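seq:
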Amino acid sequence: MEIDNRPLRIAIVAGEISGDILGSELVGALRNHFPQAHFYGLAGNLMQQCGVQSLFPMESISLVGTEGLLSQASHILSIRRKLYRRFIADSIDLFIGVDVPDFNLTLAERLSKAGVPTVQYVGPTIWALRGYRVHKVARAVKHVFVLFPFEVEYYRRQNIPVTFVGHPFASRLASLPDCRDVRTQLQLPADKMIVALLPGSRRNEVKRLADPLVQSAHRLCQLFGREHICFAVPIASEALGNCFTTAAPTYNQLPLQLFDGKSQQVLAAADMALLASGTAALEAMLLEKPMVVVYKGPWYAKALVSCFGSLRYCALPNYLLASARVPELIFAKATPQNIADTAWQIWQDKPARLLYQGESRAVRQVLAHANITHAVPVIADLLS
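struct:
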């Protein structure tokens, strides 16, 4: 498809590793329909491998969120202004925001006012906390593509066009990997309990959670017996690895292995996970792994929760499962003793674990049924 005898110009902006994964899936699907289209904006390695030109490093806005905007507002706003001017100068045909709504919705709203069709892939979590943003979504984009079926009703109530496209993680896990095989690949012991520790994918998150998770691991050694347990920690980058080892210097006193990435493999090999709230919790649920979700935000985070809405749950799985089965330890409750004791209680209650695993399997099947190709005809209509 061409416009005015030139290839389509599709701008796309992702700001985090999870968004890079989702964006690459969407670009791949769109390339099958628009093979000559030029994609550019902000992209990580996976999107760039799909032919997306990145005008700035994706990490430039990877701290977006309340904390990132407060600490690096000037830099982030400068990038957004530059992207807007470039997209307008190029007369882009479509803008796709992939997650990072704090960054993308404002950019989409300005582009929409200039006559550019705009869509958002991964709907802002109006169902969890910041419901006030729904009006901005309505102003900013023509269509929202959501990952989870329960989100559809929230947007429809506000007359915002929405399509459920499922989650690529679920599609890749139609059948679960064999735990023993994964342990062999990762050189983890076959005969011990393995607990995955995932402190997050952002520097500030890792700084806050690394030591509580490591201290809880020390307590779990006492509860399970040091000879019966070991720990696996996937780290997304060398910088985050340095952050982890600095923030939790006693990690090397544990039976613990660090891994370069490989979060999904580590979770598949584990019996249980202690992790930061976010994408990792979804992965753990899809892999049917019992977990404890931990959150320790900046000093003002609790006040913001109170100001902007009531937070029913911190962990996404608790919105997806038939009932809230994932323990959440947030703010002052996220102590090493609470984390370890909660993990111990989970492991002692086998009937509850089996019930959780059955519900997780059912959710995975629902999420895997839809896929990102459902977004293609919607986008084609916007471009016609």
